[in-house]
Write a structure and sequence with these properties.
single chain; 159 residues; mainly alpha; 5 helices
């Protein structure tokens, strides 16, 4: 089942990233997740995107291992349980991850406490990333539901 979760994590991350990129190109969101992640490592805007994509795919595999652990403990997997975990994943990512954890380690991200005279490279995402547009919330939840469903289904097929 672990290989199913990892393959599902890779495929799910491809789909999640594609959905969020498409939402950006369709002007439904201003969020650029690879840029957001990559600028934590480098101020170079071009390299930041490349590094960000790499970090996002690694995170997708790590989260897939977390899903696999839940599947192993519960003895169940599949589309529904995977999608439910995807919803939890989206809520975690949109609240604690981008509003508490990422700003604490990201040297170029503004926060709610950023002084008016400072000039961060990135504005703070806000609750459920709504500072990047209200539709960001919907795109992020849909993308994570699909990610979770893919990880859950491929995990169940690998048993």
């Amino acid at each position: 089942m672990i290989w199913g979760a990892l393959v599902g994590g890779l495929l799910g991350t491809v789909l999640l990233t594609t959905i969020l990129r498409a939402a950006g190109e369709l002007r439904l969101t201003r969020m650029d997740l690879p840029f957001l992640l990559g600028t934590a490592v480098t101020p170079d805007r071009v390299r930041a995107k490349l590094i960000g994509y790499g970090l996002h795919f690694v995170a997708g595999l790590v989260f897939a291992l977390g899903y696999w652990a839940v599947f192993a403990v519960t003895g169940r997997s599949g589309v529904i349980l995977g999608a439910l975990l995807g919803l939890v994943h989206a809520l975690f990512a949109g609240t604690a991850l981008v509003n508490i954890i990422l700003p604490a380690v990201h040297p170029r991200m503004g926060t709610g406490f950023t002084a008016a005279g400072s000039s961060p490279l990135l504005e703070p995402p806000g609750f459920m990333l709504v500072n990047y547009g209200r539709e960001t919330l919907v795109a992020m939840i849909v993308a994570h539901l699909i990610y979770g469903a893919v990880v859950g289904e491929l995990s169940s097929l690998a048993t």
